[in-house]
Sequence to fold (74 residues):
Amino acid sequence: MTEEIRQDGKVVLSSDAEHAIPMIFNNLCGKNFSGEEYRNYIRYVALGEMGFKPGRIELYRDGELLKHGDIPKL
Fold:
């Protein structure tokens, strides 16, 4: 099983490890963090290190869209 996070139709993160990509997706959408901790995660990790940009992201499993969310513009 391959899980991916895509943005603008391009795969940004991909893994075969169970639970890793959905957890990162939830982090990016603010489900696991809030407030200053979430803003710092987006600013320094998602935008600074992972290569994401503000906007829509999508979670796929084996090529099938599971859900979508948004990375906020800070």
About this structure: The chain is about 35% helix and 35% strand. The mean pLDDT is 95. Helices lie at 20-28, 35-50.
